[in-house]
């Protein structure tokens, strides 16, 4: 299993959110993937 932590994920329309979404789609063809979207507040604490 793979866990991806990110600050941006669709529906966020930005390069990082799109990149993480596409990365997730490719990796989950062979592995179980969970994506966790954290806010800036959660990253600080």
Keywords:
single chain; 22% strand; 2 strands; transferase activity; 45 residues; alpha+beta
Overview of the structural elements:
With 45 residues, this protein is an alpha+beta fold. The protein has one domain. The chain contains two helices and two strands; from the N terminus they run βαβα. Strands 1-2 form a two-stranded parallel sheet. Helix 1 links the parallel strand 1 and strand 2. The termini are far apart.
**What kind of sheet is the major sheet?**
2 strands, parallel
Q: How much beta, percentage-wise?
A: 15-25%
Low-confidence stretches: none
Number of beta strands: 2
Secondary-structure content class: alpha+beta
- The order of strands across the largest sheet is 1-2
* Shape type: flat
Compact description:
The chain is of the alpha+beta class and 45 residues long. 40% of the residues lie in helices and 22% in strands. The protein has one domain.
